[in-house]
Specification:
heterodimer; A: 244 residues; alpha/beta; Rossmann fold; 2 domains; six-stranded mixed β-sheet; four-stranded antiparallel β-sheet; B: 401 residues; alpha+beta; two-stranded antiparallel sheet; 13 helices
Chain lengths: 244, 401
Amino acid sequence: MVRATPLLEARGVRRSFGGDLVLHEASLSIRAGESVSITGHSGSGKTTLLSVLALLLEPDAGEIWVAGANATLWSDAQRSRIRNHSFGYVFQGAHLVGSLSVLDNVLVPALIAGRRRERRDYARSLLDRLGLSNREGHLPHMLSLGQRRRVALARALVLEPPVILADEPTNDLDPRRANQIAEFLLGLPAAGHALALVTHDRALASAADVRLFLRDGVLACEEDAPEVPFGKKSGVSTDQQSRQ
Amino acid sequence: MLRLISAGLLRRRWQSVATVLAVGLGVGLLFAAILLQRGLKQGLELSRQRLGADLLVVPARASVDPDHALFAGSPLNVYMDRGVTEKVKSIPGIRRVETQFFTQSLRLECCSVDTEIRLVGIEASAVERLAAMSKEGVPTLQPDEVIIGGRLLGGVGKRGSLIELLGGIFRVGFRLEPSATALDYSILLPIDTARKIAGQSEALQFLWKDAGAPENLISAILVEVEDDARLPGIADRLEAIGAVKVIRAGETFQRFKKLTDAFVYVLAAAGAITAFGGIVYLVSHFASTAWDRKGEWALYRALGASRSRTVVLVVGEAIALSGGGAMIGLPLGYLFFRLGLRRLAAQNAFPFVFPSAELLAVAAGMAFVLYVILGMASAAWPAFKVARLEPALIMAQGDID
């Protein structure tokens, strides 16, 4: 059976900041309807990997392929268009625009794409599904942290992008809210989306189809991960790269 | 894009209002300075053309400020025998002479004008010269026709209308362009007619008891010399006639020009300083706000705004602020200009030509475009810088709020 072309693929990606190598030969691929979780200790390069995958950060070496095309060769305008149309990014912080209402915050990608009117009803339906229908006229400072996270999630989905990238989507949330967001995210692959999520949450990570572990810039299968609680550095170093 | 721009501006409502007002004030001052400067320059030139003479001969007892006599158009209530004209004409090197007859200031009761109105009797050659400088001017004046000063009588004094002067009915031949001098509030008429009505006026009889019959009197003689004539020599010979005072237009004009130029330079400098202050303010404002808000721009970049669209967003806000400020500044500047003009007119100190609609439009356009370009230019570099930032790195620094 021939497998579908990956929607998003990293091939031997390296990225360093100053003299510190943060990502070392990282490779992974995500297909439609598939979910990938990336876990790792704080500072292991998870957010950097997700940013590189989302074309928010340029790799020092290696390539990012989007739907079978080498995005590393694209212009800024092309990468921006793909970020807008094809990627939905849930940032670690909510990153909402304080001057815009909840509904307008959700519609920012549509505003940039010039499709605000067309996506307004869909944005409202997303807010409804996330339990925020009575908050669409509110400003971000009127919302709780959990509500702001859900607004950010709705924003990532408003253009129905094929790829969703979520960075610590349940961080700092109480268990009930965390479960609510986790269920929502994990339901996305069933609707045809490809999902890549970075998390410290073992339960959330283990629910993904593909489970990867990032240690000191090296990507490995979850099975190879050391039994050390997240948030503490293991001090273990390996050159192995792997994907399931 | 427009929604994002307006949201960005509305979020910082007071900061935006302050910027718009600052720009408005700058545009207003610049606009007013341009209008006053142009009006003064044109006024000086117009006064010189209207005078059309190198020397002005007045009675020796006239206590007259030469600057005002020549350029502010102040009439003199003094007289000399018209026979002086022939003596002046007889001096070699004089090309042309032109006499004027001023009457005492009068009140025009019929037209509800409260201020005094001066009557100036002029010769046909002066009518011709003034007509050439007026949009509606006609080169000849009938005995029952008058020329109205630019700010006199308003709609009542338009061309063809009838007015009453010292008991006689006169038709308005044409109206002079306003010049912010006493001429704006004067009525000019054929010199013989002026003498006749002044002589018939019972109210003015006390003047003629001392001076003699007005038919034999003049108030001033305008003298134009040959191109190759020596002006100082001719002036000396004129003064040798006796009982006359000679005002040299060239020297007075130069002195007055220097004074006007100084005023114009002050206005031009005020305009330049305003524009420069505007540049400094706008550059510092847009540089700091663009950098303070880098998290917001980075978010738009992350959500799909290209570098060029990010530049458009940042510069768009600058254009909205500077354009809005300019829109407010233009009527404000016109108000400044009218206030300044009112002060000038009240003093009758400087000749002034009210700017044409064309000049108003050009000056308004210049001030508007200059400040919009300044706004764009001020924001362009900060916009370029924030658009080059890696969104992931900026957003990692924390929430944009």
